[in-house]
Specification:
With 268 residues, the protein is mainly α. The chain is built from ten helices and no strands. It has one domain: MetI-like (MetI-like fold, Orthogonal Bundle). It has helices spanning 2-35, 52-57, 61-94, 100-108, 115-129, 135-159, 163-171, 176-205, 221-231, 236-258. It is globular.
Length: 268
């Protein structure tokens, strides 16, 4: 009965995994097929195949402007979170001090809060201090939301780092800062790159927080899509969404191939 039961459970697990996988990728398949239709409106299954809607994106200046804002905001968010996360991860991985667990929980807390709550709180805070809705305000808000993603990967790399290498450099006469830059930083670079990519993707695709921080004069690509699908039924939005999804998948696959993601998401 043992082997027979094991085979039955294994087959059930395979079927279950296939159903979950299909359920996960089905929305993307529908959006992608809708984006290559030759019809004038969203249609599934597509009546004919065409890439006309991908070409049409480049003739929409408002799309290119929103794309530029999204790229600038995401890059600025990566820079800001990296500057904040490196010293935070260094302190959390190297020292044991009172309140360490509370500090770690505080820095990771944006993962436990709904994005809409964070966005509402930030826009109310900006209003209270008279801070205008701008690119700078959006970057600061995105940094709050994305900081844990970079912190997890950078801290995981530092937890696994052999401190004796850095101590040997100091013993040989290197200044602690130079030892960190010359020894530690190159070794934890994969964690830095992985964290930067996750932060970039999360910032670029963010909707719930951006919803509160854009204006008619300044918007980002996800919010343009959000507004566009409410007003139009043509497949341009599907083409943009498909392109973003494919680009994100390619980046993550390349990251896993050349940097490696296993073991870089745990913080003890």
């Amino acid at each position: 009965m043992g082997p027979r039961r094991g085979g039955w459970l294994g087959g059930l697990a395979i079927v279950y995994g296939a159903v979950i996988t299909l359920f996960t990728i089905a929305p993307f398949i529908v959006v992608f097929l809708a984006s290559v239709t030759s019809a004038e409106y969203l249609q599934f299954p597509p009546r004919g195949l065409s890439l006309r809607w991908y070409a049409a994106v480049w003739h929409r200046p408002e799309v290119l402007a929103a794309l530029g804002n999204s790229l600038v905001a995401a890059v600025a968010t990566v820079i800001l979170t990296t500057v904040l996360n490196v010293p935070a991860a260094y302190a959390l991985s190297r020292y044991r001090f009172r309140g360490r667990q509370f500090l770690l929980a505080f820095l990771m807390s944006p993962l436990m809060l709904p994005g809409i709550v964070i966005g509402f709180a930030i826009v109310r805070f900006y209003g209270a201090i008279g801070f205008p809705l701008s690119l700078a305000g959006l970057v600061l808000a995105h940094a709050v939301v994305t900081l844990p993603y970079g912190l997890r990967t950078i801290a995981a790399s530092m937890f696994g780092f052999d401190r004796t290498l850095e101590e040997a450099a100091v013993t040989l006469g290197a200044h602690p800062v130079r030892a960190f830059l010359s020894v530690t930083l190159p070794i934890i670079k994969p964690g830095l790159i992985a964290g930067a990519v996750f932060v970039f993707i999360t910032s670029f695709d963010n909707v719930t927080v951006s919803l509160f921080l854009v204006s008619p004069r300044f918007t980002v690509l996800p919010m343009w899509l959000f507004s566009y699908v409410e007003q139009s039924a043509d497949p341009i939005a599907a083409a943009i969404a498909s392109a973003i999804t494919v680009a994100s998948l390619i980046v993550v696959v390349l990251l896993d191939r050349f940097v490696g993601l296993r073991g870089r998401m745990y913080v003890g």
